[in-house]
Design brief:
Length: 233
């Protein structure tokens, strides 16, 4: 597994590099946002650990630039423990958010959780989940539609995986929040709506047949043939 650490504090970056290398990861380090953008877009990484406060290009801007081109999982690091910053990072497409200072074992646990999102497979579970021309390869963690690969973030993959495993079943915001983000539901948060909108743009917008539907007052459902009256986009 290859990990990119984007962190301008050389001492802290070195600590992360050593710890991750000792845990079996191949690690590269970028010292600022500009180098981070180049390495993240040109390299092939399994996960990116991204600091928010960076010279040249801050973490939020880098994440937004990255999300336009790649779906590499991203864990953001910040010294600011504010709800606004965490929500901003999640809305921008971060897969997790960790506040400094933290113990290294917590970062390792977050990395492992992000990489395995989509739910554990039982021995009898198929490697492929299919709905119409949509296919999810749970072994390679790839999704495609009509033979075209969908470039999904880890968060989008996890959301699609939950919806596909429960295809035909209306999933409430509360249930999706608990299963995908593993956090208590906040009725004032629109994290689910933002994630659904991002997923729909990749899953449905380029194709004539829509699969992801909104059921007013209830939640979301992934299925074929639902009438447009049930879908409020």
């Amino acid at each position: 597994m290859r990990v990119l650490v984007v962190e301008d504090n050389a001492k802290f970056a070195g600590h992360l590099r050593r710890g991750l290398a000792e845990s079996g990861y191949v690690v590269d380090v970028a010292k600022d946002g500009i180098d981070g953008r180049h390495m993240a877009t040109e390299g092939d990484y399994d996960l990116i650990v991204l600091d928010v406060m960076l010279p040249g290009l801050d973490g939020f801007a880098l994440l937004e630039a990255l999300r336009r081109r790649k779906g590499t999982p991203v864990i953001m690091l910040t010294a600011a423990d504010s709800v606004e910053d965490r929500v901003r990072g999640l809305r921008a497409g971060a897969d997790d958010y960790l506040v400094k200072p933290f113990v290294f074992t917590e970062l390792l646990a977050r990395i492992q959780a992000v990489l395995r999102r989509g739910g554990p497979r039982t021995p009898l579970e198929s490697d492929r989940l299919v709905l119409g021309d949509l296919e999810l390869d749970t072994t390679r963690r790839r999704a495609s539609r009509a033979g075209i690969r969908l470039e999904l973030t880890a968060q989008e993959y996890a959301l699609l995986s939950v919806l596909l495993r429960h295809r035909g079943e209306v999933m409430s915001r509360t249930v999706l929040t608990e299963q995908v983000w593993d956090m208590n539901f906040d009725g004032d948060s629109n994290v689910v709506e933002v994630a659904i909108r991002r997923l729909r743009a990749k899953l449905d917008d380029p194709f004539p047949t829509k699969l992801l539907h909104t059921v007013r007052g209830m939640g979301y459902v992934l299925e074929l043939g639902r009438g447009e009256a049930a879908q409020q986009r």
